[in-house]
Amino acid sequence: MQISLDLAGAMTYVAYKSLLEKLMVEGKTTGKNQSVEFLNYAKINLQRMHRLEKTSLLIPDLTMVLGNLKQSYTWLIITEGWCGDAAQNLPVFELIEKVCPNIHLKLILRDEHPELIDRYLSHGSRSIPKVICFKKDEQSGGENNEQFVWGPRPHGLQQLVLQWLKEGVSKEEKGILVQKWYNEDKTLSLQKELLNLVNKLV
To answer: Which of 24, 75, 144, 174 has the most neighbouring CB atoms within 10 Å?
Structure first.
C-alpha cells in the first residue's frame, strides 16, 4: 500500500532510550498520562529493556534471512515509554537493525501522532507497539510502500489478552499473566513471526 509518510520527529532506538532515561530523571515519562502509575510502568520498562538488551539473541534462521535482504527498508515503530509490550519487544528490533544494514528503525511517540496510530488500530484500540515496514521508493527516495504491519504483541499472547478481556480478568491479574508469558517465551514467538514476515521480503 502506498501512503504519505511524514517521519518528522522520528528517533533512533538509542535516541528513544536516551529520552526515556532523561525523562525518568525528571520524574516524567512520554505521553499525556503522567500519573504515578504510569511513571512506575516507565521505570520498570527501562529495567526490562536493559535486561533484554543484554540477554536476547536472534535465532539463527532469522539472522540468516536478514542477511539475504537486498533492498532497504524502514521499520517505523509507534511506541511510548510507559508501554510494557513495547519494552518487551523493542530490544529485539534493535538487534535486528544491528545485524541487518538494510533495516533502519525509526521510532515515534503514539500520543504525538494520533493521525498515524488511528490508521493502525487493533480491534478499535490504539494499542502499541505497532511496527510498520516500508520499502524505500527508489523514484522519490522516500518510504511510502508499506510491506507489513506487526503488533501490538506476538499473536499467541494477543489472543490470550483478548480472551482474558472477555473473561473479565482484572487489569492487575492480566499484567501478571502477560509478564509471565513474556518470561517463559523469551522473545521466541516474536522472532518466529518476524522470520515469516522477513521471508516474504526476500
So the answer is: 75
Q: How far apart are CA 139 and CA 141, in angstroms?
A: 6
Count: domains in the chain: 1
Could you tell me the CATH number of the domain that includes residue 39? Answer: 3.40.30.10
Is 131 within 8 Å of 76 (Cβ atoms)? yes
* Owner of C-alpha cell 510491506: 147
| 20 closest CA partner among 41, 51, 5 | 41
What would the pLDDT profile of 71-129 be if each residue is shown by its tens digit?
999 999 999 999 999 999 999 999 999 999 999 999 999 999 999 999 999 989 999 99
| pLDDT tens for each residue of 41-66 | 999 999 999 999 999 999 999 999 99
CA dist 85 → 22, 49, 179 (Å) = 21, 11, 9
